[in-house]
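Example record for the data management plan.
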Amino acid sequence: MKEPTLKKVAYGVAMAIAIILVHFIDARVYNMQPILALILAILITFVGITFINKSEKMDRKISRMNYNLLNVAVVLVLFFAYVTISQ
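Corresponding structural encoding:
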């Protein structure tokens, strides 16, 4: 694996935000068809990744331990948000 950077963690955050937003809209605002939810999630992820790629601050290298801890935090937030929205 290449050196971990903040950009790789930010990609995961962008995908997590897209999943949380689409699930919130689907569960609370408007019951979407699955294909529409998928397209919306892809669009939100694409916009997030575009902003991440434009930022020069995200190219900073981080330690493998911080990289793993940040990824665990992103997964936990995604899990708890998904469960909370579903209730």
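Summary line stored alongside the record: The chain is about 80% helix and 0% strand.
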